[in-house]
Amino acid sequence: MATMIGMGVSTLHRHFQELTGMSPLQYQKHLRLHEARRLMLIEETDVTTTALKVGR
Protein backbone atom coordinates (compact mmCIF):
# COMPACT_ATOMS: atom_id res chain seq x y z
CA MET A 1 0.00 0.00 0.00
CA ALA A 2 2.85 2.38 0.79
CA THR A 3 4.20 1.98 -2.75
CA MET A 4 0.77 2.64 -4.24
CA ILE A 5 0.58 6.03 -2.55
CA GLY A 6 4.23 6.91 -3.07
CA MET A 7 5.26 6.71 0.55
CA GLY A 8 7.85 4.73 2.45
CA VAL A 9 6.63 1.94 4.71
CA SER A 10 7.92 3.56 7.89
CA THR A 11 6.33 6.88 6.91
CA LEU A 12 3.01 5.17 6.25
CA HIS A 13 3.18 3.42 9.63
CA ARG A 14 3.96 6.71 11.39
CA HIS A 15 1.04 8.52 9.69
CA PHE A 16 -1.28 5.58 10.36
CA GLN A 17 -0.37 5.61 14.04
CA GLU A 18 -0.87 9.38 14.25
CA LEU A 19 -4.39 9.00 12.83
CA THR A 20 -5.53 5.87 14.64
CA GLY A 21 -3.44 5.82 17.80
CA MET A 22 -2.22 2.32 17.02
CA SER A 23 0.07 0.52 14.60
CA PRO A 24 -1.38 -1.15 11.49
CA LEU A 25 -0.95 -4.58 13.14
CA GLN A 26 -2.64 -3.44 16.35
CA TYR A 27 -5.48 -1.95 14.27
CA GLN A 28 -5.94 -5.21 12.36
CA LYS A 29 -6.07 -7.16 15.63
CA HIS A 30 -8.56 -4.66 17.02
CA LEU A 31 -10.83 -5.14 13.99
CA ARG A 32 -10.60 -8.93 14.25
CA LEU A 33 -11.45 -8.90 17.96
CA HIS A 34 -14.37 -6.56 17.33
CA GLU A 35 -15.71 -8.86 14.59
CA ALA A 36 -15.20 -11.93 16.79
CA ARG A 37 -17.15 -10.29 19.60
CA ARG A 38 -19.95 -9.41 17.17
CA LEU A 39 -20.11 -12.94 15.76
CA MET A 40 -20.22 -14.55 19.18
CA LEU A 41 -22.76 -12.16 20.70
CA ILE A 42 -25.10 -11.43 17.81
CA GLU A 43 -24.78 -14.48 15.59
CA GLU A 44 -24.10 -16.80 18.55
CA THR A 45 -21.27 -18.65 16.82
CA ASP A 46 -18.95 -20.88 18.82
CA VAL A 47 -15.31 -20.05 19.47
CA THR A 48 -13.90 -22.39 16.81
CA THR A 49 -16.18 -21.10 14.06
CA THR A 50 -15.50 -17.53 15.08
CA ALA A 51 -11.74 -18.06 15.05
CA LEU A 52 -11.90 -19.55 11.57
CA LYS A 53 -14.02 -16.67 10.30
CA VAL A 54 -11.84 -13.87 11.66
CA GLY A 55 -8.49 -15.48 10.93
CA ARG A 56 -7.53 -16.57 14.44
TrEMBL record:
Keyword Transcription carried by entry: yes
Keyword list, A-Z: Transcription, Transcription regulation
Entry annotated with the keyword Protein biosynthesis: no
InterPro entries cross-referenced by the UniProt entry: Homeodomain-like_sf (IPR009057), HTH_AraC (IPR018060)
Domain HTH araC/xylS-type: residue ranges: 1-56
Pfam families, alphabetized: HTH_18 (PF12833)
Domain of life: Bacteria
Descriptive protein name: Helix-turn-helix transcriptional regulator
Organism placement in taxonomy: Bacteria, Pseudomonadati, Pseudomonadota, Alphaproteobacteria, Hyphomicrobiales
